[in-house]
Structures are given as structure tokens and as C-alpha cells.
Amino acid sequence: MDNYDSLTRTGPGTPMGELMRQYWVPAGLSSELVADGPPVRMKLLGEKLIAFRDSSGRVGVLDHRCPHRCASLFYGRNEENGLRCVYHGWKYDVDGRCLEQANVPPHQVFADKIRAKAYLATERNGMIWVFMGDRERAPALPPFEATLLPQDQVEYRFVQRRCNWLQAMDGDLDTSHVGLLHFGGARPSGDLDTESRNLVLNKAPDYKVNDTEFGLSYGAYRPAADGGTYWRTAHFLFPFWVMPPITSVEDNVLVRGWIPLDDDHCMFVGIAHKNHFRESHNRKPLPGGTLVDRLHPNSSDWLGRYRNVEAEENDYFIDRDVQRDQSFTGIEGIHVQDQCITESMGPIVDRSFETLSPSDIAVVRGRRCMLRAVEAFQQGKRPPAADQPELYAGVRGGYYTTQDTGDWLKTQKARVAAAPPALLMEMA
Fold first, then answer.
1. Is the predicted pLDDT of residue 195 greater than 90, yes or no?
2. What are the structural domains, with CATH classification, of the chain?
3. Whole-model pTM?
4. Using CA atoms, how far apart are residues 191 and 413, in angstroms rounded to an integer?
């Protein structure tokens, strides 16, 4: 067992799992649930849950077991503002209240004493959120810029990954892999834009890392191709959010979550301004640098949602000829490349085999940050930003070039403050 084992397990009663239950968790798209439509199986934090939309449009998220005899409510009838178990006709509303006990004589009904395990659920701009902790302590939804956008201006990406959530998120905390895994096949040439030249010419940046009230801020920096310093700044925000430098700080209105489904599977959730890649649309794509997800149709399995077509069983469609002559990996797609690497480590990586280097400083600091928070939470201290979601407001990652040689965090904050707010971004 490695030092970070307590961070990988997120089921009920685990230290990290109980900490995560103090935050709102993205569960899926609002479009997945239809009023009086079929219930949907989902896993979150190691629990098997049933989601449904009742006749009035409210969303319910319940433990899949009927409190009567534990038959699965997945097979239930979604009707007249409740989900009815087909075994004996007991019916539950979105808050878990038992409304009817169809097989109990009227003079013996005790429905008012029965509650299905139900979690607080809400929706914002086309996405479903679930709070799996004490309802009385539920904070406001996190005010990330991208989550506050009107639904017609936001882009969602859901992709399941077959590995533990922590090793998936570690990949977002490691920015040095971008110039190699994703763009290692690119060669310096006159037709590359400045951003691409910065990545291609110097694949080994230096780093700065700082603890923050919401988690961690970090920056990779290197000499810029056209003078000054090229920075790629990013943030880890408790408990599973990252703001990586996907594009320039002016356009980087996005947040990414790594949601544990169970210990061996997680869900990548990307929330972004629909035009946040507009800058890259005008650039010549680097080898293997597409961002298109190819997903299987959702099925009703517990892990049947948002599964990538590219997977271990087809070797992620690696093309060895392309790898030799064109791209660094021979695998098409930035997300697929990440998927391949993190899944290749196994469902839960054995970190005793790791040999960490200075380029892993953000990964190490992120893990330590989480360990401290878990230990403090077990001693009764509330975890970072759990009761102060306003700490997330105004935080943005991104890349930029600067001549400033002063405090990097002050420079980063100044660049973000000067960037246009998400709601005022020019529409393409």
C-alpha cells in the first residue's frame, strides 16, 4: 500500500470519499432524464444510484435498492411524481419519501416511516449536480465561470475512463507531458504559430507551485520563442477539479472534473465556453492534436455511459507507421492519448514503481495537499472551499507570454483580471 492509497478509495466511509461528499458532484446531462421516462443507472463515489425525472420535471437520485426488500428501482415505474418498485408497488418521490405501499392493507400502512436513501439533486444550465453529504450542510453550487454560462454558450464533455480518478487527475496536474505525448511529433518550422513553437522548442520547462485557499496553483515556464517568458498556468481546486492551460488565458474559460464512479473507473467532465477553442481553430493542427471524442451509445449498464470507442482491446487504434513518421504516439486525439496512458497503468497504479522527478512537482504537491486535507477533515476541520464556494470565483488558467519577471502569481492574477469575462466573450 502506497502513501496515497487513502486518496484513491472514495466509497462510503472512506476518508477521501467522505471528504468528496462535502461538495457538489456532476452526475450527467439534463437531457439524459425525461419526465416519467425510464430511470437511469449511474455510479458515483462507489454507490449504485438510480436517477429519474418525475412528472413535474424534478430530478431524483436514489440508492438503487428499494428499502422494502432491496429489489432494484431501475426496473421501477416512473409515474405520477414518483418511482414505484415493481416488486410490491412501494412508491418513492424524488426526496425518498414513501408515498404508497400497494401490498399493505390500508389500516397497516406505515409509509410515513419509510425513506429511500435519496441525495439532493439540482440542475444548472443543462447539467445535473448531486450532493451526497448531509443535506443541511449543502453549499451553493460552485461558481466556476464556465458553469455560469447560459446553456447555449456552454460545451459539455463527458468521457468515462477505466482507471482510478487520482491517476487520471494526476495527468492534468502534469503539464510537461503536453509537449511530448501530444505534440512530440511536431518539428520546428516557419509555419508554426508562436504557441506551438514555444512547446516544440522547449519541452522541459521549470515550475512554480503555490498552495491556495481552494487547492493549488502551478505554472510551467520557459523562454518564449519570440522573447520574454512563456507561462502555462493551471489550478487544482478541491476536491477533483482542474483548470489546465488548454488555450490562452483570454479564452481559457473552462473547468475539468475527474469524478470517481468507483475505485476502478472515473468520469472526465469538461465544462467550457463553446468558443474557448476558437483561437486554436485558426492554427494549423499539430500531429495527433484533434479534440474529437468518439463514444459508444450509452447503455443501461452501471458503467454504460460515455464510453470511448478507442480502448485497450483495440490498442487505441495505434498506427505504428504514423508513430514512426508523423506523430509521437501514432494515436489520434489528445484525449485518447491521455486515456491510453492513464489506463495502461492499470485500474489503480502501483506507485511503488514510480520514480518521480522535478517535472512532477505539481503532482506531488497536489497529492500532499489532498492528504493534509483528508487528515484535517478526519480531525473535524472542514475541507478547503467546502463551505466557501465563492473561493472558486474568478479563477482561470491559461497560457501567455510576459516580460514581467516579478511574482508569478501576481502576474497570473493580473492577466486573468484583464481577460474578458466569460459572458462578454466575443461570439465566433
1. no
2. 24-138 (2.102.10.10), 146-424 (3.90.380.10)
3. 0.92
4. 32
